[in-house]
Amino acid sequence: MSGREGGKKKPLKAPKKQNKEMDDDEVAFKQKQKEEQKALEALKTKASGKGPMCGTGIKKSGKK
């Protein structure tokens, strides 16, 4: 028994998934999803360029 045997064992490799044939509906759906993702990313980058929506932050009352 050497010291290297202890601990977690590596899991067995899962068999590779076979590529299944996609019909036209699935191809169109995947394409639509990719376009929506690109549009969302463009909106995110556009929105991140600006500052925060409201610049007021935490309002503090004048009372002490």
UniProtKB/TrEMBL annotation:
It comes from the Eukaryota. InterPro entries: TMA7. Residues 1-64 are annotated as: Disordered. Residues 27-44 have a biased composition (Basic and acidic residues). Belongs to the TMA7 family. This is Translation machinery-associated protein 7 isoform X1. It comes from Notothenia coriiceps.
